[in-house]
Amino acid sequence: MLTAMVLIDVDAGVIPEVAARIADVTGVSEVYSVTGEVDLIAMVRVREHDALADVIADKISKVPGVLRTQTYIAFRTYSKHDLEQAFSLGLED
């Protein structure tokens, strides 16, 4: 599984609408509204490298209101939370 963090600059007047549209894109697992230099951060999780281009360049970047994206691809996961989810069977503790 490949994970990418996509930092997204958005037209300020449509941030909630853009976030909702991005959240509906297949391959996007979460969208966060954040403070700082960007407006949104989307977590993209796909099985193959080529799928990143489909999700980010062909879908997220083309959502009306998206002004710019910057993508960071994760090499390793160090978060205990993420590792527990990866091996979870979906059963409650």
TrEMBL record:
Transmembrane segments: none annotated. SUPFAM superfamilies: Dimeric alpha+beta barrel (SSF54909). InterPro entries: Dimeric_a/b-barrel, Tscrpt_reg_AsnC/Lrp_C. Residues 6-77 form the Transcription regulator AsnC/Lrp ligand binding domain. It comes from the Bacteria. This is Transcriptional regulator. It comes from Cellulomonas aerilata.
